[in-house]
Design a protein that fits this description.
Strand content: over 45%
Low-confidence stretches: 1-14, 16-28, 109-120
Oligomer: single chain
Shape: globular
Largest sheet: 21 strands, antiparallel, barrel
Number of helices: 2
Helix content: under 10%
Radius of gyration: 26 Å
Length: about 750
């Protein structure tokens, strides 16, 4: 389908004008209320008067009143609430949304020792949406070079290579690919469209201050594209970051990187920060000797400059980010003198700018008005095998959101209303086919929250979006949380999500083979319903803290873009025929058996199926390709006093998964026997030694050395009809070791 740009620029200008009347995401302060008590031996509660309550990294906080109550303003980046009182053990809670927090402080055994404790799990206690919080401490358990490598100790999100040549990585949540997860950076949808291919690699780990992992239907405030969950990445802020932070990394495969972050407070209101990252792979590796590089060579440079203004009644942030990457995969040209060889190349240039403005009301912290605006240009060029087999993609996006928040009578009744606007221009071409379209989507939304403190929270939300190509679309969502007790929380959610797929950019792995691509239908928006429930229970084993979380989610598609790989000669794209669904169950136990040790045990079960059109035209309901049914994760972390030494070990067991039948004589019928890849284990470990202002860390990944023996079919003849590098189900490389260093100058120095 071809479209032109003639109407795009006037539409964007019109959209900007409309946005100042109505448009983007929340930047306003909210308020968290609660009470601090001491629990007596008879289980009675005594209010603590004058206890200190503050956010981590904040210079000041509030004190509890004569009844132990407190009220503290919360900014979007505030998550860790620290409660302390002389003679009592300090407690740190993970708090993401408004609501009532009950804090029980324990008498300290020794008054000259301050002990900071936290829940063994980072599940948000107040949020009615099932949300897990990943902080910098968790990220430091692994090398975490970029966002795609930030989930090694997380059971809800899994990451794997999409193919054996490009180095593209994909995430899975609730049994479905990351295309259905709305990935935001500070509430701005970021990894979407053409950025889906390598976007996870483009957010350096050292830039990240925290990640929120939300399962199921997310808030309508952030858009309509969340279908199975949402990731929100918070970056380092210039007003509360280290003056200087340096991280270096190098591994045994020849990959190295350097990260330098700086921040400075210019005065009481202004601060500025600069985040930089450079990385590259300089050595060709071919561990299975099939003449193909196991990992592509690449060079990546990116930088973000951001400014922040903060006063009592206004907060503003703005910045600009630039990125350039060049990567080369496939066979090494030096090994094929005067002979044809298979090579993959990709060059990406990306520029984006953002601005955030919020009106604050100190006398009414529950009230706020916020506006965010983001503009980006993503330019990519690639070739596969021969330079003539090329792909070009250009995406221009303007995105904004305006939101107003207030209460109805009291803070038990709050609401958010606003409007959003997004304009996407896509120009893609592959071989002799062009895929051009302009999407313009203004929308309005509203969300109402009802709270019975310490008992029940209900969130009702809905949005109406007006798509210039696919008409008006209504997106309803509902979330509820019921506190069975102070330690047991039941959550439930249901909601609709939809998105417009980008068949080529989101399936780069399908281009590194000799199969012919067939687009059988005019692609329509994908649409699904997601509903589920979770139960979280905090308890003690002896005197040690533990937490058990159980959750179940189901996703039903009304329409899904089917990527049919059943034939050895074709890859077919067509709109959903028949059924497509995903069932996900997860059980996770977090336990602290001894002081300064955390243990995580998790089991995950997926049942993901969709109807495939067989060779005879019948529908066969088959398990989704490359999705393992079972997964077990065990993570153990231990730190000595003052974090002088830290030890982390992660073991994953991945069950079998269905893969395409490699036989070229195979004919798909409704009775065809599925082919499965074997189960395998993976072990990662890291040891960190802390010094005065720096840390030295050394670790290893895939320590079992397991790897898929032949990830590339017909590697010896890459221009034959049997060549296929897209059938990756396990590790491509064997054991890898790395070493790195972190050094910082704190902001208070």
């Amino acid at each position: 389908m071809k479209t032109t740009y003639n109407g795009l620029i006037p539409s964007i200008i019109l959209g900007v004008i409309l946005l100042f009347i109505s448009s983007y995401s929340i930047m306003a302060q909210t308020v968290v209320k609660g009470a601090v008590y001491e629990q007596k031996s008879d289980n009675s509660l005594e209010p603590l008067i004058g206890a200190s309550v503050r956010w981590a990294n904040a210079k000041s906080g509030v004190l509890t009143d004569t009844e132990g109550n407190f009220s503290i303003s919360k900014k979007p980046e505030n998550h860790e609430l620290i409660v302390s009182f002389v003679g009592y053990k300090t407690d740190t809670l993970m708090v993401h949304t408004t609501g009532f927090v009950k804090v029980l402080l324990q008498v300290a055994g020794q008054l000259n020792e301050v002990t900071v404790t936290s829940s063994p799990t980072n599940i948000d206690r107040l949020n009615p949406i099932q949300t897990e919080f990943i902080n910098t401490k968790t990220l430091a358990k692994a090398a975490c070079c970029n966002l795609s490598e930030s989930f090694e100790t997380n059971a809800s999100v899994s990451v794997s290579y999409a193919d054996a040549i490009t180095g593209s990585k994909q995430i899975q949540m609730l049994g479905l690919s990351g295309n259905y997860v709305q990935t935001n950076v500070e509430n701005i949808p970021s990894v979407r469209g053409l950025a889906t291919t390598f976007g996870l690699n483009y957010i350096p780990g050292t830039w990240i201050s925290s990640i929120d992992v939300s399962k199921g239907a997310s808030s309508v405030v952030n858009g309509y594209e969340s279908m199975t969950g949402a990731l929100n990445v918070e970056l380092q802020k210039p007003d509360d970051s280290d003056k200087l932070y340096v991280n270096t990394y190098i591994n045994s495969f020849g990959r190295g990187e350097l990260n330098i972050n700086t921040a400075r407070k210019l005065n009481d209101k202004w601060s500025v920060g600069l985040l930089t990252h450079g990385s590259g792979q300089s050595i060709s590796i071919d561990q299975n000797h099939d003449t193909f590089r196991d990992v592509p060579l690449f060079g990546l440079a990116t930088a973000l400059n951001r400014w922040k203004y903060q006063s009592d009644r206004m907060m503003a942030q703005f910045g600009i980010k630039g990125l350039y990457e060049n990567r080369t995969g496939g066979q090494n040209a030096a090994d094929f003198v005067n002979k044809p060889y298979y090579e993959f190349g990709n060059r990406t240039k990306r520029v984006e700018a953002f601005a955030k403005i919020a009106a604050l009301f100190p006398e009414k912290p529950y009230k706020g008005l916020g506006f965010i605006m983001n503009a980006s240009v993503h330019d990519a060029n690639a070739y596969f095998g021969l330079t003539s087999r090329s792909y070009t993609g250009l995406q221009k996006t303007f995105y904004s959101n305006l939101i107003y928040q207030n209460i109805i009578d009291n803070t038990n009744h709050t609401y958010k209303v606003g409007a959003s606007f997004i304009a996407d221009s896509y120009r893609e071409s592959y071989l002799d086919s062009a895929f051009h379209r302009n999407e313009i989507v203004p929308g309005v939304f509203g969300e109402y929250t009802y709270v019975i403190p310490e008992k029940f929270t209900l969130v009702l939300g809905g949005r109406m979006d007006f798509h210039n190509l696919y008409g008006n679309r209504f997106t309803p969502r509902i979330h509820a949380k019921y506190d069975l007790s102070s330690n047991t929380h039941l959550r439930a959610s249901a909601g609709k999500g939809w998105r417009m797929p980008n068949a080529i950019a989101e399936n780069f792995a399908m281009l590194v083979n000799s199969r012919q691509l067939l687009v059988l239908d005019q692609i329509r928006p994908e649409e699904s319903w997601n509903y589920g429930a979770s139960l979280s229970h905090d308890f003690k084993v002896g005197t040690r803290n533990a937490n058990l979380t159980l959750d179940y989610y189901r996703t039903d598609f009304n329409n899904q873009l089917t990527v049919d790989m059943e034939s050895a000669y074709y890859i077919k794209f067509y709109n959903q025929r028949g059924k497509s669904y995903s069932n996900s169950f997860q059980a996770e136990l977090n336990y602290s058996p001894i002081k300064r040790m955390d243990v995580k045990l998790a089991y995950r079960l997926f049942d993901v199926k969709n109807d495939i059109v067989t060779s005879s035209g019948e529908l066969a309901l088959l398990p989704k390709m490359f999705v393992n049914r079972d997964r077990i994760l065990v993570n153990v972390g231990y730190a000595t006093k003052f974090d002088k030494w830290k030890f982390d070990l992660t073991w994953q067991w991945n069950g079998k998964r269905r893969i395409p039948d490699a036989s070229h004589e195979h004919v798909q019928t409704i009775d065809s026997e599925p082919v499965y890849a074997p189960a395998f284990s993976n072990i990662n470990a890291q040891v960190t030694r802390g010094f005065y202002r720096w840390e030295l860390y050394v670790g290893g990944e895939n320590l079992t050395g397991f790897r898929q023996s032949n990830p590339i079919m017909s590697a010896s003849n890459p221009f034959s009809q049997h060549f296929d590098a897209s059938m990756v189900w396990g590790p491509i490389t064997g054991r890898m070791v790395y070493v790195g260093m972190r050094w910082k100058i704190p902001s208070k120095v």
